[in-house]
Design brief:
- The protein has 139 residues and is mainly alpha-helical.
- The protein has one domain.
- 76% of the residues lie in helices and 0% in strands.
- Helix 4 runs parallel beside helix 8.
- The chain is globular.
- It starts with a helix and ends with a helix.
Amino acid sequence: MKRIIVISVLSLLFLINTFNAQELNSNANHIRNNYSTDYEATLRKHALEKWGDDYRMVVYEINQQADALVELVKEFKSENTNIAFRAIQKWSVEGYKNSNTEQFQEMEVFGLKQLIKMHCDWRMVKYEYDRQVRAKDAF
């Protein structure tokens, strides 16, 4: 019982520290350093639109979006291209569905360099992709 409480307290402290982190994580820094123009036009722009001058939340949002995007690229399998395409369409930022669709259809490689140009809620794209792949693999 004490062990469970200690583990729970440590987990809670880790989550609090992660949430209160006020700097970009490794995935967000990688994107910012290697794709700075696209980072500014997508991840940073949409985080600022969503959170305004609550800069802790802006950083948190950027970190969450960057993590989801990097994980999506790592886990992507070509047989699930249509699933990824539909998830990107569904979770495109308002006003960007058509340009995201065009960019996706022109892509030759499903990679970070290509996807960072799109305006999406990457957390939701990743969630939708994972959910649909699990369902497809269930039958």
